[in-house]
Design a protein that fits this description.
Blueprint (H helix, E strand, L loop, with lengths): L1 H19 L5 H8 L33 E8 L2 H13 L4 E8 L5 E7 L5 H13 L5 E2 L9 E6 L2 H12 L6 E6 L2 E8 L7 H8 L6 E6 L3
Length: about 220
Amino acid sequence: MRWIFYSLVIANIVVAGYFLAQPKSEAVANTVAAAPIAGKTLRLVGEAEQPLVPAPKSEFSSAPRQLCYVLGPYKDDLDARHVQARAAALSLTGMINSIGVGEQTDIEYWVHVPPRIDRAAAMATLKELQRRSIDSYIITQGDLAEGISLGLFHSLDSAKKLKAEVEVYEFPVDILEMGKRQLEYWVEIREVAQLTERMRERVQAGDHGVEWKLVECLN
């Protein structure tokens, strides 16, 4: 009887060893590999059927506007012209901006060339006027921007006289009746990198009651 018992034990060991030596079922392995997580299959970026599209840039993003130095305020446009001339002597581009301050009072008459199609056309007209020794500068703001200012007059007759003189050279000239406002003048210079402290002192040339500011360019 004892040999029968030992035979059964040896047979059980052989059968158990056989099953333990077999590889795990491929079906089980595949099932585990394809098992979704929370109902969604994980995918590598390289396996995506469509390329990833970068998020679009904000439609409100824009390049910052150019900065310029301005010197002012001057009460007399002649003083502003002197600054402009000193800037030009240093190979700097000076543009005069006039700003109305205070309340309107008496009537004045503004003689001007109507707005040109763009800044290049306005500059060309300005050069032609100055070549004929006609005082003038570009209007940079308001409804008459890109026009050419020829002067303000208390007398309508004086305004009409200047108008006739300029029209001889075949320039279009208008007269605008306007309430008198105190104007202040600022000289704008674009060459910020060149305008060192020493250069600013030379342009200002000791003028009092004015200051330099770094602001967004108006011209």
